[in-house]
Structure formats: C-alpha cells, structure tokens
Amino acid sequence: MTAFEWTQYEGHGPGAELLGQPRTALELGAAECREASWLARRGVRVTALDLSPVQVERARRWWKDVPGLAIEEGEACAFLRAGDQTYDAVYSVWGAVWFTDPQELFPLVSTRLAPGGLFVFSHGETPQGLDGRRPMYGKGPEGREMTVDRWCHAPEVWAGLAREHGFRDVRARCLPAPTGQALGTIIVEARVPA
Length: 194
Ligand SMILES: C[S@@+](CC[C@H](N)C(=O)[O-])C[C@H]1O[C@@H](n2cnc3c(N)ncnc32)[C@H](O)[C@@H]1O
Prior knowledge:
The protein is α/β, with parallel strands linked by helices. It contains five helices and nine strands. It has a single domain (23-191), classed as Vaccinia Virus protein VP39 (Rossmann fold). 23% of the residues lie in helices and 34% in strands. Helix 3 runs parallel beside helix 4. The protein is globular. The site of S-adenosylmethionine has 18 residues, from strand 2.
C-alpha cells in the first residue's frame, strides 16, 4: 500500500496529513487495517479496532511484523467507554463512525482525544434527501439475512453534530468522485479544544 486513502479510489483526495502529526492514533472500524498499518510503519503508535473477529484475525496475521500497531476486537462505543487512554487522533475510513449513532459516539470520541486532538472520518456520499439512520439489508455469515444501520448525513449536518458535541475547527465536505466514478466521499475534520 503506497498511501493513506480516505476515499475508495487510489490516489484520490487528501491523505494522512489530515491527521496532523500524531504520536498516537485510534482507528474505529479498521477492517483490513491498511491505513493503521501505514501509519504505524511511519512511527505512529496505532490502535486499530474492529468488531468483526474475522477482520481482526486476518489483519493480525497480515500485519504481525508491524511494530507499534495494536489490533483490537470490539465495538467502538464499548471500547471508548471502557478505557481512559487518550489519542492525538481518532479516525475512521468508511468505518465505525458511519455505522454508529453520532449522539452516542461523538461525546465518547471527544473524551478520548488529547487536548487539541483531531477527529477525522470519511464515508460514502449521502444521496440527496437522505438524513439520519438508514437500515441496510444484506446477508451475513451462512447467508443469514441481517440489517445494519448506517448514519447518513450531508456534510453540513455532520458539521453541526460535531459542533453540538464541542468540536472546533470543523470542516465537512463531499469530495466528488474522479471522472467516470459515481460515488463521492464525505470527509469530516474536527478538533477538540486545546
Ligand atoms: C465498510 S468497512 C470499512 C473498513 C475499512 N476502514 C476500509 O476502509 O476498508 C466497515 C468496518 O467497520 C466495522 N464496524 C462497523 N461498526 C462498528 C462498530 N460499532 N465498532 C467497531 N467496528 C465497527 C465493520 O466490522 C467493518 O469491518
């Protein structure tokens, strides 16, 4: 992997610079841990969290030789509630932030950020007119039908939610897809007060 990507298109849009120069970082919903391992290889102490045991087992195998990378299994809100370590950056790439009620998650994130720490997340573009919790229907392990909730907001709504929970320097935008591709990427950047 050659870059830290916020979008699903290689080399498109900003990279790890959105996280500043963190010494420590927490990724929420890291799945394959590509971004987390990229950061760890550059000297950041990274905790990468995912609730899927399958993802965690595979990522631990793939990145076992990367120093400074801790891959944890757990649900984002439960993990944030359970500890008190703070991080210079908390981030999520199409990850847990998209799948978690921000009213519950945002206050927990802010308590786990060091003063002045950055909260940055991305997810797929929200179609016009959609706002709030949206169930996604699909098939889980062994073909079982399952529903997963996703929180879909326009950038300005995400910005308002971040401010409502005390974040500052909020920037939220939808980065259009490269030519010929359909789905843009919402990127939200925010900071807790120093
Ligand atoms: C669409 S995948 C994206 C993952 C990865 N960041 C990427 O860019 O490939 C979303 C991941 O978030 C995880 N996830 C969803 N909700 C979560 C939660 N509440 N806590 C922890 N992980 C969660 C899922 O298990 C899944 O691996």
